[in-house]
Design goal:
mainly alpha; elongated
Length: about 80
């Protein structure tokens, strides 16, 4: 049995019911804001830890990793989506 449905058939069904077809993303277990914050922190952490590692190899590590991650998280969240 083929369980595929097309946008055309969904629109036709919506029209028959005098409805608008709406697409939505529904978060699993967290709000969109919480998910975006977590993703921003993950990206910031990766960046900061890479830089911190490089600086440690040159004996220039700052030691303020958590503060740097928080600052970078704010920059990531305010810079908008990456392309």
């Amino acid at each position: 049995m083929d369980d595929r449905i097309t946008l055309r058939s969904l629109r036709a069904c919506a029209n028959a019911l005098d409805c608008d077809l709406v697409y939505a993303f529904v978060p699993r277990g967290a709000t969109i804001e919480e998910t975006l914050a977590a993703r921003a922190r993950d990206a910031a952490s990766l960046t900061v830890r890479r830089v911190e590692h490089s600086m440690a190899l040159e004996d220039q590590a700052s030691g303020n990793v958590e503060q740097a991650i928080e600052a970078q998280t704010r920059r990531v969240r305010h810079s908008g989506p990456s392309r």
